[in-house]
Every structure is written in C-alpha cells, then in structure tokens.
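This part of the workshop introduces the protein records we will be handling. To make this concrete, we reproduce a full record directly below:
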Amino acid sequence: MDIATTGLHRLLVASLGESATLETFAQLHVAPSLLQPISDTVSRAELAQALNMLLFRDLLLRVPDAVDYVGECVKDGGRIVFDHGALRTVAWASGALPPGEAAITRVLRPLGYRHAETYPLPKLKMTGRSWRHADMPEDIAQFFVSELHPERFSAGFQATVGRVLEGSIDPLVPADLALLETLSRDKTLPWHAALKLLPALQRCFARQHPLFTQDDYQALLAESAEMAWIATEGNAFNHATDRVADIDAVALSQRALGRPIKDSIETSASGRVRQTAFRAAQVRRVFLHEGQVVTLTVPGSFYEFIQRASLIEGALDLGFDAGNATGIFKMTAAA
C-alpha cells in the first residue's frame, strides 16, 4: 500500500510535515494492519500509533547516540521495532495537573491501553506499571509509567517537591477531555477531531511545571536522582526502547563504536526479558539562583534495547522485571 494514502500518514503529516513524516516511517516498523486507507474516522489504534511515532521522534531529538544508531539501522536497510516508551511521574499534588500517573493514564485509556502489570521498585521508592494496547499488544508500543512516592522521603524533600510542582499547568483543555471521552466511548474519532486531539496528547509528554531554583534541584538530587530528573524533564519520555533479536550482538557492536552503552545486560528472573541501554544524554537546563538564571548540565533521556523471548504458548513475553527496571533507571543517575 502507498503510505501516502493511509490514515496514519495523514495524522503524522499534520504534525510533522511531509519530509519528517517520511523519515519517521523509514525509521520505524509499522504493522501492516495499522496502514489503513483514509476513511471517515480514525481508530484508537491509529491514534495510538501516531502518538507513539511522534514521541519516538521527540526522543531522538534529545538523544544524539540514538540518532546515530537509528541512522545506521536505516542505512543498513533495517527498521526499529519500537517496544515501549517509559516516563516518570510524581504521586503528589501538582498544581492544575492530575497527580502521578493519572496525568498520563487519562490519555492512555481512551487510546485503547489497559493496565497490564505492576512492578514495585522499593529501592527507588517508586512503583512502575506497564500499559499494553488492547487491540494490538505486540505491534503497538507499550508504556512503562512509573510513580515516585515523596511520602517515603524526608519532610524537607516533600516540601521541595511541593514547591517545584505547585505551578504545574494542565496541557489538556476541557475540549480535549471531551474528545477523549468520545474516543473512549466510540473507539474512533472523526478526522477533524483526531487532527485537533493528537497535538494536545503529545503536549502531555513534557514538563508542565515552571522554572525553579538550583537549590531545590540540589535538594532533590541529594535524596533521589529520579526526582531530580523529573524536576528538569517532567513527563517527557525517559527512554524509548528498540526490540532487537540479539541483544548481545547489539551491545558488542555499540561498545566497539565507542558509544556509552551499559556495562552489563539486565536479565529478568524468567530469563526471557533482557535489557541494556545507552547512558543518558547530557543536556543543558536553566534554573534560578540568587535572582539570576543559571545553566547546568544534567542527565537527559536515553535509548534502550530489549530482547524478548516467547512464552510456552508461543506469544511474545511482553512483561517487564522490577530488577531490570531498577538497573535501567541508573542510566540517568550520574550527571
């Protein structure tokens, strides 16, 4: 099928333009069943896939090592199998933004995602939850949404979290929420509504709170590298993950190229899920300090690799592992 005749192409062109859309299609594997001709309505699966492609592209803009890796894959005739995107939230009062994962799950549910599994992360004082698409669980990327629990930290830490988050805005206006309700009910949207909603959904995956002080950043960092990361990056993708056939070969080749890949490969208790990653890109962020705006280099996002084996019944093991997740979280720990 000609990509230009598909609904997915139309969705992406409206947000990216023709050139960037074609580049994104060249980078990512898209299941044939998602390449549907343009009709009167847009399905929730098409919208979910379009959002994922936009978020993957946004991640590439922030992680130079990922850009290089993806470019080499495309040059060699391959495409990335986008397995999942991960983001972090804070289970705490956040101004106008719903607290914790609710800021994100209110978007995921209407798009067809369902909560799959919960992963306690006690060492990080966080909880992770996987969200899997009900219509096409193996073909539409999952979301791994984590929540940090400030109540498990010191009183001073909690007060700092409150100061940083209290000015958060809600990127969704009532009209957006009404369209999400329609999508949840009908599982489709008319074209004019889908084209209006998609950019609003993308805005949810960003930082929603305003500038804050360098002292508050250092106070958060002293107790939680994860909360310090959320403070600068918000709900942006912490990482995007490439599902690969041979993770050992990938790690070896990337290490030989001098890229900052993790020293070890995390393996789940079942042995079926194996993960490694590039270390986080270093990014420049601004803070307030003694009435002035200052700039610091802090950890940004990163790119991950995952290898999944099949379950006994033949389906791909789409699960995660708390131990693996804890190890991968360390990719953003060091500035």
The chain has twelve helices and twelve strands. The mean pLDDT is 96. The first strand starts at residue 41 and ends at 43. Residues 3-332 form a domain with the 2,3-Dihydroxybiphenyl 1,2-Dioxygenase; domain 1 fold (CATH 3.10.180.50).
